[in-house]
Task: inverse folding
């Protein structure tokens, strides 16, 4: 594990068993819970802020031909807190058919929801927009449909005013122009 802050030169190392690859998924779960408890005991909860938990990458809201890219550590930390609260309340579900993370780590309490492709409704997006600003763009800007419907932010606002219920997901992306079928 790396340094927790620039002022501290102390590093914390946590052993991983040599036979980790031979363990069953249940044994790995037990080990990971023990490791989490050990980290929390050594570092304290106040050391594990969302900025340290969230991987620095982009997250996108995708659906109904829209893409809303969320970039930057502060925005990601805010989205992480929002999504973690929804997960803890039992109001977050993964789009398992699209989610590569679910092949190894199913979405459950304690998991990073930003590592998954998570279903999100329009009302939830509106709640999220109170926390972070999202610039809407078309997933396929050169598509005939997008060209005939004007600017993406205007069309998104029209959907909100009509109280439309399109299906959206929040997904991790590592590319500048995220498309629905890519990760």
Result:
């Amino acid at each position: 594990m790396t340094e927790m802050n620039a002022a501290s030169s102390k590093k914390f190392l946590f052993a991983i068993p040599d036979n980790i690859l031979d363990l069953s998924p249940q044994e790995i779960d037990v080990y990971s819970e023990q490791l989490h408890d050990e980290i929390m005991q050594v570092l304290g909860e106040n050391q594990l802020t969302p900025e340290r938990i969230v991987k620095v990458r982009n997250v996108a809201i995708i659906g109904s031909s829209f893409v809303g890219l969320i970039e930057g550590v502060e925005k990601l930390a805010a989205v992480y807190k929002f999504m973690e609260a929804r997960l803890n309340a039992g109001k977050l579900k993964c789009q398992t058919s699209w989610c590569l993370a679910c092949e190894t780590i199913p979405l459950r309490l304690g998991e990073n929801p930003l590592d998954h492709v998570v279903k999100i409704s329009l009302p939830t997006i509106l709640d999220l927009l109170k926390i972070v600003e999202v610039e809407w763009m078309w997933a396929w800007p050169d598509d005939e449909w997008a060209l005939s419907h004007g600017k993406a932010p205007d069309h998104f606002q029209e959907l909100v005013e009509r109280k439309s219920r399109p299906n959206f997901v929040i997904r991790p992306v590592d590319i500048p122009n995220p498309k629905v079928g890519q990760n």
